[in-house]
Specification:
The protein has four helices and four strands, in the order βααβαβαβ. With 125 residues, it is an alpha/beta fold. A four-stranded parallel beta sheet has the order 1-2-3-4. α4 links the parallel β3 and β4. α2 packs parallel to α3 and α3 packs parallel to α4. The termini are far apart.
Length: 125
């Protein structure tokens, strides 16, 4: 609509296409990385990649960011929820403390190799 072309790889779309059901937590970080990689092989557009909670702790976030970047992501979303689910009628899950999320953000920033990679950090307050 505004002339910006991009694609997004998200857990809900992947879960619907892979399992025929909403994103109820069956998708893993491995699934999300693979989806991003397959998408980058198929299109020549920037990819916004969903990483849910990045795999949990800061060490997993570090590894996830590197894997997503290698898979072709131009933007990577990291959420502050355990399980990172946003389903109507369900509890959002446990929200990380501010200090824990700051640690994850530091890990994500440290993991980047391409300074043009944008980290989209989703924080519920």
């Amino acid at each position: 609509m505004h002339g910006f072309e991009m694609v997004m790889t998200g857990g809900s779309a992947l879960s619907l296409s892979k399992y025929g059901t909403g994103d109820f937590g069956m998708i893993t970080v491995d699934d999300l990385v693979e989806f991003c990689n397959r998408t980058s092989d198929a299109v020549d557009l920037p990819i916004i990649a969903d990483s849910d909670d990045g795999g949990g702790n800061p060490l997993n976030v570090y590894r996830t960011i590197q894997r997503m970047e290698k898979a072709g992501a131009a933007r990577i979303m990291v959420e502050d929820l355990y399980g990172a689910k946003h389903l109507a009628g369900y509890d959002e899950g446990k929200i990380l403390s501010r200090a824990a999320m700051v640690d994850k953000v530091h890990a994500a920033v440290d993991a980047r190799r391409d300074q043009d990679l944008v980290l989209l950090v989703l924080v519920d307050e």
